[in-house]
Amino acid sequence: MTSPSLFIGSADGQSIEQPGVMSNRHGLVAGATGTGKTVTLQVLAEGFSRMGVPVFAADIKGDLSGLASPGSSNPKIEERLKAMTLPSFRFQGCPAVFWDMYGEAGHPVRTTVSDMGPLLLSHLLELNETQTGVLYAGFDVADDQGLLLLDLKDLRALLAWMGENARELTSTYGNITAASVGAIQRRLLVLEEQGAEMFFGEPALALDDIMHRDFSGRGVVSVLEASCLVHQSPKVYAAFLLWLLSELFENLPEVGDLDAPKLVLFFDEAHLLFDGAPKPLREKIEQVVRLIRSKGVGIYFITQNPLDIPEEVLGQLGMKIQHALRAFTPNDQKTIRAVSQSFVANPSFDTAEVLTSMGIGEALVSVLDREGRPQPVSRTLIAPPEGKIGPLSPDQRSDLIGRSPLKGRYDQSVDRESAYEMLKNRAEQVQADEAWKKEQSAKDEGDGWLEAGEKKGRQRQGVGEAMLKSAARSIGSQLGRQIVRGVLGSIFGGRR
Questions:
Q1: 0.70 exceeded by the pTM?
Q2: Which domain holds residue 80?
Q3: Are residues 224 and 104 part of one domain?
Q4: Is pLDDT of 83 > 80?
């Protein structure tokens, strides 16, 4: 049985296809604004879905949702279909599940502070080296103290407790200063203003829920609504994608090269993953990209300028789809030369020249053969998508969300006992203990006054006075003290 292939388009009457067995070797879709990157992304996502491969894609512009609905013919699509030989083509929608970190245009996406970890979290908070060290210490403290870090209020409570006990913690966890703790707390406030608080909590996203097929065997496409997120909170967007990579890498078993990937990820605006990332995080990303293919996961980066991706990552990418670039500035021209040299040359045309002359829906495409060898670059007409080009209407999206198999699983947040509640209970217990001690001290002073008063001469006693003296003599026991409180309360209450 022949393994499946991903149909991309046609070049000189020949089909350009990526073998399914090589599709875990990752890929790149690049090009200037308006050259057709989003449509290409949709074509690839639909192709993987037909192969039975689950897909997770970030929708930056808000127009990827149309893949869930059948497309319709128009003159441009008819022209494109006549210009290429397609193995099969019919307008149809993909099985899709919608996600939204804000919970408005899809199921909420959450993870816990613990799962995010100190490395990604310090990057998200833009901490310096000293502050990052304090944050690492905080995670160690939480582990040692049995404190669950689920949401941001847990982290705030932990930091506050660390600030109050900095002197005691320093001997075990290194130098912890109030200044560093305060700086982290201020960064948390900034993060919360960007809406990041909604991202942390439970129920956390389960990997299985983005890795399933529908009843017909097609891979389900999970679409993350990120049009607002990437503009309002780009750091949160990048942190989520990196967390997802990390979780997949740590939890999926080794499977080697399958006939088709177990999961494919499309990361739009990929440069955000690397912008401002510290060296340890960059090294982590490079490691994950290099090794995650053996777990059956393919990663496809989408960006305007391929040079925004670090060379160490670019070198790991098998399939390259390069839409047109513009040569307006010397830097643009430099980019064009660098990009053209990254392809295996095709003797039939000048790669650098073609890069600036292609129209919408055209691209320079290089794929791997079944042996993993890069093929010469081809000037390719990208196939039209089978789904709708553009976004779904709000009613269509709402209908699909309402019929989602994951309906009710993530829609309501859960706030179980964690670090915030545990530290709050500890603080209340300490306050109660201190109040009890003060109360006991005050009673002891009162008992001394009663005993002193008893020694002042023998006077005629009333019934009430005799009861007081009798109770005072039993003050040595807790029961006696309770009796005194009760008697005093009844007597003084009766005199009002």
A1: yes
A2: 5-110+202-402
A3: yes
A4: yes
